[in-house]
Design a protein that fits this description.
CATH class of the largest domain: Alpha Beta
Strand content: 15-25%
Order of helices and strands: EHEEEEEEEHHEHEHEEEH
CATH topology of the largest domain: Rossmann fold
Number of strands: 13
Number of helices: 6
Structural class: alpha/beta
Number of domains: 2
Shape: elongated
Strand order of the largest sheet: 1-8-7-6-3-4
Length: 273
Amino acid sequence: MYAEGSPQVDPEIFRLGIPILGICYGCQLMAQYLGGEVTAAGKDTAREYGKTQTWFDTDCRLFRGLPEQSITWMSHGDYMAKVPESFRLVAHSDACPTVGICDEARGFYGVQFHPEVNHTEYGRAMLRNFLYEVCGATGEWTMGDFMRKSIADIRAKVGDGKVLLALSGSEMVKAANAIGLPVASEVFADRGYRADGSLVPRGAPGAMIEDEDTAIARVLQMAAQGTVQADDGSTVTLQADSVCVHGDGPKALAFVQKISAALLAAGTAVAAF
């Protein structure tokens, strides 16, 4: 990390007032930037690679509730020859005396090993301690929360009178309905469906419906009955508010006109939303 051109970090991050966990190179960067010293380890001293017996100070919140001794995964040729003044040593191995450091007043933690790999016996628990004990995370966040927030942000930007267009049966539709955002469920005229309502991936057999008459018949079924046949022969239930046709083909416009005419002939109204 001390070589010219080596990856560095903006030192402003240490003044943001947020918890920081430095892992391996990140630990060394933290030490170097905050007044410590990182140097090359001697051939038979602090250089480590592989599974390593490591000792921990379990008064440190990062290691709280864990055994005082366990296996970690090491992979480093440099080490912290000097620890920053505000930090205390909280882990060591037979070869390296500075395996773990912390400044708990500022929420700064650094480990020379890799808690994110399975070879570190209690690595997952250490990361959990950092998230929940140090950062104060609650573990209640889900992808649904992300979806709802994203849609709420979109709604705030586009205002009233706009409609979100999303794949029928998708999480996007569910999230929009949950927060009262106007949403139209989209079906595909020329794409195959799987039994779970998702589209058959491009390149897989049945991904594209090449025959126009077959595609139109499927659209009419989706519009009238709210169902479509999946690639495994099962019946998928869906909501058809809008029909998507891929516009990159030479006959796309004519195809859309045929679909529109067939829907009108079947008594299905076609209008803007």
